[in-house]
Design brief:
Blueprint lengths: L13 H21 L5 H5 L4 H10 L1 H19 L7 H22 L4 H23 L2 H4 L1 H5 L1 H19 L1
Helix pairs in contact: 1-3, 1-4, 3-4, 3-5, 3-9, 4-5, 5-6, 6-9
């Protein structure tokens, strides 16, 4: 499907900050819902969802604002993610914003295959960082061990959201 609405919002455009705030709020509310389910955050990886959608639809600036603010604000307000987990989550989140905005910009379209590529790419970067940072392969593979439902949600529901926004 042709991605009809792709645009990079500049840092001087007030819409960048309004949309970023909306996506950050989404990344605050969705994890709160997911944490109602035991281990819901670990299984569903909700902190990344609106970063993916925002970066894919509106570019790197909005993506990076959402990627950094979402985990930091969640941690400050709710203690989740815990401060010790923030470095790995921030690397994954920033990697997601960079890869999603790049793929959207280069392809000018959205597809399940492209979103799967984005998710695999940011997870590989995140796993490598987490392995180096923690020295634990077990920790580095946590999203793959527990988060398959969330990774699939990012690809499939991300596609639906991006497709709706692109109309």
């Amino acid at each position: 499907m042709k991605h009809a609405n792709y645009k990079t919002l500049s840092l001087t455009n007030h819409s960048t900050y309004i949309f970023s705030a909306m996506f950050v709020i989404g990344n605050i509310l969705l994890p709160q819902l997911c944490h109602l389910v035991p281990q819901g955050g670990l299984m569903l990886l909700p902190i990344y969802f609106f970063t993916l959608v925002g970066a894919y639809c509106y570019g790197i600036n909005l993506g990076l604002l959402t990627a950094v603010l979402s985990p930091v604000v969640n941690s400050m307000l709710f203690g989740m993610p815990p401060a010790a987990a923030l470095p790995a989550i921030l690397v994954k989140s920033v990697s997601l914003a960079v890869v999603a905005s790049y793929v959207a910009h280069r392809s000018q379209r959205v597809s399940i295959g492209l979103l799967a590529l984005v998710v695999v790419a940011y997870q590989l970067v995140g796993m490598a960082f987490e392995y180096v940072y923690t020295g634990s392969l077990y920790a580095a593979l946590q999203d793959v061990r527990l988060g398959i439902p969330g990774l699939l949600m990012q690809v499939l529901l991300g596609y639906v959201f991006i497709k709706k926004i692109s109309k």
